[in-house]
């Protein structure tokens, strides 16, 4: 499902002394079955954009097209529910949304709101637990007895249970340990690869952007500064740092090697594997020369 | 809806009223609510209105915001005013239908009650818009201090007040976040019949309570770790300073009170 923003502007608390403009004439599109990374400094408007993706907020100017629904300032609130089923959002620290007595019921909560029966919902929960790295024994446990990482997984399962076509992730790995981070991100990547899900990832982790995303949008002060493939955007390390953003560790290392040994990396390596591959070639060349 | 609520929020500024000591502002606002009941004729209400409008002017805040502050309460005010108009009997009767009587006195009473509401709201809006919540709790702590003598734990009350005020915006943000998260999971807040609406509140309330418990525990630990042991022997970082302008304000309130006494019938 495509999502398109046309000249979208958003103002918080218009007409009060606390009024503040968060978005300025944003144009962007998120293509079906893409993995889009939305990056920007804190306060750049990422979260506001995110809440437009399933009409939690309506633009104060311009329009957002989600699939075949057009949302403008004047759109009615009726019938947004079906939209919310198609666009699932995993909010930052989603463990704060758990409330049912058991993990199973909590995961089944979303599907039940969209018309499934209790049994169908619970069956879905049982199905999803292994996917997020928990086993069936968790079904009957209280979500409040779990560790932070396990709660996070339950909350994510609760969103996946809606079977969304678009999955929006707001810093899904914030506050997780390195292994948990990798597990969670790999899980999302597999969903994207195997089930053709459209994924929108909001993050500060440039390594994640480099490893997983195929499209990258840079926001700054409520406007889109640049968008394109991560490989192209990461070439401009200086520009990114002027946006108070960094480059992935592989790119940083590659730049250092370029400077030190006058190596040229082409294409720019984004993952450790790519970097290792290119270094192997370079070293083999070198060995050949010295012989 | 919460976004539109102006009442009870602080707007930073450097006006005469902003610079006043919170104690004089708080005492003034409370005193105003007491003396407004002295007013009972056109002249006294005129004096009060002039006083309040002067204060609004001195606060250098856009008068539009004061009117916005009245808006959420307008139905309550109109309801009271209309009851007052319909059920006050009097000498000069304009219209009568069974128990419903519209008299000149009733009309006048209605207008006075309307003014009383608006003036009180304006005055308290001036107080909250120009005073930081934390200064307000300092003022409350100071003014309650005499109660220490009768074993009222004034410091603890003030501490709870300032913590509560500090966490109001945090909890509002949290509420909004959880609401959004549950909406994304298919909850429609404020739709359906009363039973459905109450049911939809559960997924909001439980996480809010749980996070408040967690927050309270973390805050208590952090306070202990920083050496908090209670009110005994503590010093104050924010010192309140009474200045000439505060005395002037108190004198103005005194003159207003005397004026009202003389003018009322």
From TrEMBL, chain A:
Q: How does it sit in the membrane?
A: Peripheral membrane protein
The family classification in the record reads: Belongs to the ABC transporter superfamily. Energy-coupling factor EcfA family.
Question: Which keywords belong to this entry?
Answer: ATP-binding, Cell membrane, Membrane, Nucleotide-binding, Translocase, Transport
Localization per record = Cell membrane
Q: Name one GO molecular function term.
A: ATP hydrolysis activity
Q: Which CDD domains match?
A: ABC_cobalt_CbiO_domain1 (cd03225)
Major location category of this protein: membrane
Which terms in the GO cellular component ontology are assigned? Answer: ATP-binding cassette (ABC) transporter complex
Q: What is this protein called?
A: Energy-coupling factor transporter ATP-binding protein EcfA2
Q: How does it assemble?
A: Forms a stable energy-coupling factor (ECF) transporter complex composed of 2 membrane-embedded substrate-binding proteins (S component), 2 ATP-binding proteins (A component) and 2 transmembrane proteins (T component).
Gene3D superfamilies associated with the record: P-loop containing nucleotide triphosphate hydrolases
Residue span, ABC transporter domain: 3-246
Question: Could you say which EC number(s) this protein's record lists?
Answer: 7.-.-.-
* Function of the molecule: ATP-binding (A) component of a common energy-coupling factor (ECF) ABC-transporter complex.
Listed PROSITE patterns: ABC_TRANSPORTER_1, ABC_TRANSPORTER_2
Which Pfam families does its entry note?
Answer: ABC_tran
Query: Translocase as a keyword?
Result: yes
Q: InterPro entries, per this entry?
A: AAA+_ATPase (IPR003593), ABC_transporter-like_ATP-bd (IPR003439), ABC_transporter-like_CS (IPR017871), ABC_transpr_CbiO/EcfA_su (IPR015856), ECF_ABC_transporter_ATP-bd (IPR050095), EcfA2 (IPR030946), P-loop_NTPase (IPR027417)
Q: Output the PANTHER family linked to this UniProt entry.
A: ENERGY-COUPLING FACTOR TRANSPORTER ATP-BINDING PROTEIN ECFA2 (PTHR43553:SF27), HEAVY METAL TRANSPORTER (PTHR43553)
From TrEMBL, chain B:
Q: Which InterPro entries does the entry mention?
A: ABC/ECF_trnsptr_transmembrane, EcfT
Q: Name one GO molecular function term.
A: transmembrane transporter activity
Where found? Answer: Cell membrane
Membrane topology qualifier? Multi-pass membrane protein
Q: Does the keyword ATP-binding apply?
A: no
Q: Which Pfam families match?
A: CbiQ (PF02361)
| Keyword match Transmembrane helix | yes
Sequence intervals crossing the membrane: 29-53, 73-95, 107-132, 247-263
Sorted UniProt keywords: Cell membrane, Membrane, Transmembrane, Transmembrane helix, Transport
**GO CC aspect terms:** plasma membrane
Subunit record text:
Forms a stable energy-coupling factor (ECF) transporter complex composed of 2 membrane-embedded substrate-binding proteins (S component), 2 ATP-binding proteins (A component) and 2 transmembrane proteins (T component).
Q: What does this protein do?
A: Transmembrane (T) component of an energy-coupling factor (ECF) ABC-transporter complex. Unlike classic ABC transporters this ECF transporter provides the energy necessary to transport a number of different substrates.
Q: Which family does it belong to?
A: Belongs to the energy-coupling factor EcfT family.
Protein known as: Energy-coupling factor transporter transmembrane protein EcfT
UniProt source species? Alkalibacterium olivapovliticus
């Amino acid at each position: 499902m495509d999502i398109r923003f046309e000249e979208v502007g958003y103002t918080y608390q218009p007409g009060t002394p606390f009024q503040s403009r968060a978005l300025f004439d944003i144009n962007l599109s998120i293509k079906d079955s893409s993995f889009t990374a939305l990056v920007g400094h804190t306060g750049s408007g990422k979260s506001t954009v995110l809440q437009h993706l399933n009409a939690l907020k309506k633009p104060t100017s311009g329009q957002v097209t989600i699939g075949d629904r057009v949302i403008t300032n004047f759109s009615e609130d009726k019938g947004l529910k079906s939209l919310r089923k198609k666009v699932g959002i995993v909010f930052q620290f989603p463990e704060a949304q758990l409330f049912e007595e058991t993990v199973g019921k909590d995961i089944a909560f979303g599907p039940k709101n969209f018309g499934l029966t209790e049994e169908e919902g619970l069956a879905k929960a049982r199905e999803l637990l292994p996917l997020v790295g928990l086993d069936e024994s968790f079904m009957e446990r209280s979500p409040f007895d779990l560790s932070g990482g396990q709660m996070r997984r339950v909350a994510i399962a609760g969103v996946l249970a809606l079977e969304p076509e678009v999955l929006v992730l707001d810093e899904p790995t914030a506050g997780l340990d390195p292994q948990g981070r990798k597990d969670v991100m790999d899980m999302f990547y597999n969903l994207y690869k195997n089930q053709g899900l459209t994924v929108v990832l909001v993050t500060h982790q440039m390594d994640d952007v480099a490893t997983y995303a195929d499209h990258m949008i840079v926001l700054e002060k409520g406007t889109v500064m640049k968008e394109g493939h991560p490989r192209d955007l990461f070439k401009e390390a200086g520009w990114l740092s002027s946006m108070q953003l960094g480059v992935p560790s592989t790119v940083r290392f590659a730049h250092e090697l370029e400077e030190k040994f006058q190596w040229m990396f082409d294409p720019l390596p984004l993952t450790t594997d790519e970097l290792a591959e290119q270094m192997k070639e370079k070293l083999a060349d070198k060995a050949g020369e010295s012989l | 809806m919460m976004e539109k609520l102006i009442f009870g929020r602080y707007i930073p500024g450097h006006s005469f009223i902003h610079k006043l000591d919170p104690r004089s502002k708080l005492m003034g606002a409370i005193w105003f609510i007491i003396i407004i009941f002295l007013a009972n004729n056109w002249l006294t209400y005129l004096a009060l209105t002039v006083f309040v409008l002067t204060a609004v002017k001195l606060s250098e805040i856009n008068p539009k915001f004061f009117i916005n502050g009245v808006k959420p309460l307008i139905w309550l005010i109109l309801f009271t005013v209309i009851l007052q108009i319909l059920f006050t009997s009097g000498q000069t009767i304009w219209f009568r239908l069974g128990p419903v009587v519209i008299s000149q006195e009733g009309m006048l009473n209605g207008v006075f009650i309307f003014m009383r509401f608006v003036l009180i709201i304006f005055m308290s809006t001036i107080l909250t818009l120009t005073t930081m919540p934390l200064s307000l709790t300092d003022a409350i702590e100071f003014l309650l201090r005499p109660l220490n003598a009768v074993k009222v734990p004034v410091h603890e009350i003030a501490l709870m007040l300032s913590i509560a005020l500090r966490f109001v915006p945090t909890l509002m943000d949290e509420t909004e976040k959880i609401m959004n998260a549950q909406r994304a999971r298919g909850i429609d807040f404020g739709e359906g019949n009363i039973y459905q609406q109450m049911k939809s509140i559960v997924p909001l309330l439980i996480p809010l309570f749980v996070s408040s418990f967690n927050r309270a525990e973390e805050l208590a630990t952090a306070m202990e770790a920083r050496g908090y042991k209670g009110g005994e022997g503590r010093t104050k970082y924010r010192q309140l300073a009474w200045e000439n302008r505060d005395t002037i304000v108190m004198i103005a309130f005194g003159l207003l009170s005397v004026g009202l006494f003389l003018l009322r019938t």
